[in-house]
Amino acid sequence: MKPWADVIAQLQRTGEAYVLVTVIGTRGSSPRETGSKMVVTTEHSFDTIGGGHLEYKAIAKARELMLKRQDCQHIEEYPLGATLGQCCGGKVSVLFEYFAERGKDVWLFGAGHVAKAMMPLLAELPLRVHWVDSRAEQFPEYIPDNVEQCLTDDPVGELRRASAGSYMLVLTHNHQLDYELTEAALKRADLGLIGVIGSDTKALRFRQRLAHREFSEADIANLICPVGLAEVPGKRPMEVAISIVGQLISLYQAETPRHVPQTAIDWSILKQELDMSLKD
């Protein structure tokens, strides 16, 4: 069983949503002491606040809060009697702290030299990367925590999984596949970036093909090819990787709201609620 602190450290690296569940007060007999914690995600739970029906109800409540998709805190009171089928007979106050999903989704198609060079950089950024290729041997042995490896014979079909606003990077070994991915992305019309690696000649050919397929000038203007910052020159894999990652950083930083107050727990209100519940 992973300790809750280790789990939170990993979840913060990957940007995955989670709820920290803490026993903040007990009255009478209870399965765990005040301060006991567990972590709940959409699919798993880690550590324990005592097991049994109490934990089952706490997990259900945590996942209910996750439906809000925004940070929040909540206190729930659980009498440990017949209602929960536990013989302790006491009462437990539980604090739920929901931390919503963080970071931008990036769909990276292709596992060639440039994509491999990008991985150490992407691993250190607040991004959730979906790395897609049909060739198992191209993926390295180590995949960062914030990267989902997607091995598939249908890369274009994988694009259907991308959420609106996702960044898409096309770096495959096949120009025809690059074009098919580009066309599918433009048809969606809801992605935050459609970037394709290649030369100016490749970019011109893609735009001509798209125009022949009756894509509008406005649609075609959403294609960034060659992808990457023009002021970061070079053709080595790491040079190209830095150029592309630099462009991603510029984009998500521009989308990040400034001077937004951090969600904080009003401990005075929570203490009042806790004191009142323990008096009941």
Task: Describe the SSE topology.
Layout: H1 4-14, E1 18-27, E2 37-40, E3 45-47, H2 52-66, E4 72-79, E5 91-99, E6 104-109, H3 113-122, E7 127-133, E8 147-151, H4 155-158, E9 167-170, H5 175-188, E10 193-196, H6 200-212, H7 217-221, E11 223-224, H8 237-255, H9 267-279
Protein name: Molybdenum cofactor sulfurylase
Domain XdhC- CoxI: 12-70
Pfam families: XdhC_C, XdhC_CoxI
Task: Describe what you observe in this structure.
The chain starts with a helix and ends with a helix. The longest helix is centred in the last third of the chain and has 19 residues, at 237-255. α3 (113-122) packs across α8 (237-255). The chain is α/β, with parallel strands linked by helices and 280 residues long. The model is unreliable at 259-263 (pLDDT under 50). β2 and β3 (45-47) form a beta hairpin. It has helices at 4-14, 52-66, 113-122, 155-158, 175-188, 200-212, 217-221, 237-255, 267-279, and strands at residues 18-27, 37-40, 45-47, 72-79, 91-99, 104-109, 127-133, 147-151, 167-170, 193-196, 223-224.
Quick recap:
The protein has helices at 4-14, 52-66, 113-122, 155-158, 175-188, 200-212, 217-221, 237-255, 267-279, and strands at residues 18-27, 37-40, 45-47, 72-79, 91-99, 104-109, 127-133, 147-151, 167-170, 193-196, 223-224. A hairpin with a 4-residue loop joins strand 2 (37-40) and strand 3 (45-47).
| Helix/sheet category | alpha/beta
Q: Runs with pLDDT <50, length 5+?
A: 259-263
| Count of helix runs | 9
Q: Quick check: average pLDDT? A: 88
Major sheet: 6 strands, parallel
General shape: elongated
| The CATH topology of the largest domain | Rossmann fold
Strand order of the largest sheet: 8-7-6-9-10-11
N-to-C CA distance = 35 Å
How many domains comprise the coordinates?
A: 2
CATH architecture of the largest domain: 3-Layer(aba) Sandwich
Helical proportion, percent range:
25-40%
InterPro entries: MoCofactor_Util/Proc, Xanthine_DH_XdhC, XdhC_CoxI, XdhC_Rossmann_dom
Protein name: Molybdenum cofactor sulfurylase
Domain XdhC Rossmann: 106-248
Domain XdhC- CoxI: 12-70
